[in-house]
Design goal:
It is a single chain. The chain is mostly helical. Helices cover 62% and strands 0% of the residues. It contains 6 helices and no strands. It is elongated and about 60 Å long.
């Protein structure tokens, strides 16, 4: 992202790229902390091991998903909020400048990439990113395929 802003030889694209990097870093830290609780309880970074640890049912017929524990519920809420923020969906701030500063800063780092083909690719990439985040959250906190 930074190289795209720098390579455009435009100071506003560079500022937009630096802002986008700062936002991405600030959304990655809660994602890591939300998944860290599950990793510490399970004792493995392997996604199949995390899913296997949630297999079966407890004494009340309740599934042994991590989301049914207090730390799992808090981690799942934090993970979903950070994942939504990371994908740039509403109500979170968009790093491309689609709010009040749109007229001043242009489109941020994406200013040179305004052709329809590039916008279509960006929409597909955003959809794939959201799909991956949902699958990871389902595997880590809600039991996966168990």
């Amino acid at each position: 992202v930074f190289m795209a802003g720098w390579g455009s030889h435009n100071k506003y694209s560079l500022l937009g790229a630096m802002r986008a990097i700062a936002q991405l870093i600030s959304y990655e830290i809660p994602l890591v902390f939300a998944a860290l609780g599950v990793v510490l309880v399970v004792g493995s970074l392997s996604l199949p091991a995390i899913v296997d640890s949630q297999a079966g049912y407890d004494w009340g017929g309740l599934a042994r998903w991590h989301v049914f524990t207090p730390w799992g519920l808090a981690g799942f809420g934090l993970f979903m909020i950070a994942a939504t923020a990371k994908t740039g969906r509403s109500p979170f701030d968009h790093p491309k400048g689609v709010h009040a500063a749109h007229g001043v800063l242009g489109q941020g780092v994406g200013a040179p990439d305004s052709r329809p083909e590039q916008r279509r690719f960006a929409v597909l990439a955003d959809s794939r990113r959201l799909q991956i985040l949902v699958h990871v959250s389902l595997g880590v906190v809600v039991g996966g395929n168990s």
